[in-house]
Design goal:
It contains 6 helices and 7 strands; from the N terminus they run E-H-E-E-E-H-E-H-H-E-H-E-H. It is an alpha/beta fold. It has a 7-stranded mixed sheet, sandwiched between helices. A hairpin with an 8-residue loop joins strand 2 and strand 3. It is globular.
Length: 173
């Protein structure tokens, strides 16, 4: 049986946001190829050297209505800028669009997912619905990812993502 959960990691020297850009390009490519793709990608907007970037989640199929998942904490702040409520709202929008999907693409398995929030429920629902999932897993979340997926995963090379997605979409359940 093929793994339902495909993930990739990047080298430490990869530019910030490279995983997001890889998934954004891939989602367009697969959609253009006729695959029914659900999910979301993340877009970070650089605001200059003195400001943290804005983080938006673009729900696939609703790219004109991004969800801002970062919040401004003011200058000098050191806390996490993620707005967990906005991330949950993005997850709910993705869940509402999953019916009939051949593939689910999500930005990453991050800290929120590691503690049971964010897209974690969406991932579980996709697996229950036999929809393959592709996402990025940063190094600091790989232990939590391994515990969550229980061996149902396959680590992929960034160069092999499109092939894996296409193979998953044509597999016989």
């Amino acid at each position: 049986m093929r793994a339902m959960l495909g993930w990739f990691g990047l080298d430490d020297d990869a530019p910030p946001g490279e995983g997001d850009r890889i998934l954004a390009r891939l989602s367009v490519r697969l959609t253009d190829a006729g695959l029914r793709v659900a999910g979301a990608v993340q877009r970070n907007t650089d605001k200059g050297a003195d400001c943290a970037c804005d983080m938006d989640v673009l729900v696939i199929g609703e790219e004109d209505a991004p969800v801002r998942i970062s919040q401004s904490l003011g200058s000098g702040s050191t806390g996490c800028r993620l707005d967990p409520g906005a991330l949950e709202a993005a997850a709910a929008r993705v869940a509402a669009r999953m019916a009939g999907a051949e593939l689910l693409i999500l930005p990453k398995f991050g800290r929120q997912e590691a503690v049971g929030r964010g897209f974690r429920g969406v991932i579980a629902q996709a697996v229950a619905d036999d929809i393959p999932v592709l996402l990025h897993v940063p190094p600091e979340q790989r232990a939590a990812w391994a515990e969550f997926c229980g061996g149902m995963d396959e680590r992929l090379s960034p160069d092999g993502l499109a092939d894996w997605c296409l193979e998953q979409a044509v597999r016989v359940p």
